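Quick entry between incubations.
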Amino acid sequence: MTMLPPSTTRKLGLVIDLDTCVGCHACATSCKEWNDAGYSAPLTDTDPYGAAPDGVWFNRVHTYEVQTAAGSKTVNFPRSCLHCDNAPCVTVCPTGASFKRAADGIVLVDADKCIGCKLCSWACPYGAREYDADAGVMKKCTLCVDRIYNGNLPEAARVPACVAACPTGARSFGDLGDPASGVSRLVRERGGYDLMPEQGCAPVNKYLPPRRAPELAASPLPRPAGRFETALLRWIDRILT
Amino acid sequence: MNPAYSIVFFTTAAGAGYGLIAILALYAASGDAASRGALALTALALAAVLVSAGLLSSTRHLGHPERAWRALTQWRSSWLSREGVLALACYLPALAWARQLWRGTGVDPILPLASAALALATVYATAMIYASLKTVDAWHRGAVPLNYLLLSLASGAVLWLALRQWSGVADARDAAVTAALLACAGLAKWRYWRSIDRQAPTSTLASATGLGALGAVSSLAWPHTEQNYLLKEMGYVLARRHARKLRRIAAVCAFALPALAALASVALSDAAGSVLLGLAVPALALGLIVERWLFFAEAKHAVAVFYGR
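Done. Structure below.
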């Protein structure tokens, strides 16, 4: 069924803090490791040690440079599925393989129904879907649906692998449909925003902007005290010029 | 966008086949004598070959062609699904029409009408697969279904004119209809090219990252050093100077040459006209393939901005 649910009970998603992300790619590699054995396994690699390695990843970390008023700033930018409320990847699917769950809003692909037409990847402006040429089906972030509800894991570990791996706490997981949740509070307090709002996808995941750095004025160096030092420095200065 | 050859062939060949069905139905409705006999049956057979070869070709780009039947289920939301349903539905009245032509017992007028309606609806659904994607600025516009429909009708008209010429029943009216359709299709395509050249992109790196308020954003490092699916499928960028040259080839082969051949065939002897239209058909095929290849190769996907393109 590729009609979108009119509304979802919960809106599970991620909040990504661009202020604290250090661009270590731990989220991306941890995602790859978990999902290589998870719901959409395997995340096929082709020619991994050859001349043209390629493979399926659910999470990609870009690095951008922003020319701010105070000079150039580097911003690391993890990009993954935003589990959109108005997901165009779901409605274009001709087979019903692509769907959004009414219970928690997670967007998934049923690999047994996917015909590999790739239209969903064309419909997504965020590049969230990557085709597995080996399996002949489309793959995407599952929000670690096989971790977050996994009773075999200790409760603290029931978060997406990328969130568990982040060493700086730049990734938070929770219910963005609940105004009282931690992630909703983060979004409110830090001015969390949507990527490409003009595409009309209503993404659930939010991004927190880099904080503005305090403007530090350089203070003048202390002058050398004492007559002897002054005289010595003048003498050296005269010799050098 | 990556121009997949199976899709370029499908949209052009099936488009011409559906256009031929629509033109034939138009002639049948106007009471044309030739559209009631063996010539009409030949035209329907040609259309069936073009459409069927195109549909089979389109399944070749699928990861799981054996599951293609599943694509008929989501017609409520998906234009790709609607295209499949309409394409199959079109076979029913068209085959019934062909059967009545074969038997020579007279054709129920509803059959050509239904065939033409479903043929054009299929072409429209194909175009809407692209036009419904907000992620591709060059496709998300009303000109796309108009282009597809006009190109389908014009290419179908050229085939029908050639068949009539080879059977010795072509007249000035047939040539005029074909040339007029080619002129409309060419004009619409020219307007499309002009408008995509002038369009500002919907999404930019500033809106993609949300960092535009801080200052000018540029890509410093990609997430990966090698190609990936996104770059291969959606990062396909055609050099502009190549696009100009290819547009000229498409304009001459798909529109100018067939239109001139159609008009010249009226003035020439039957034999010379037949040879001329025999040359116009391969020119049209080449022109349409270049035009459709460009439709993909010139279209930029929003995801490319994440890569600073």
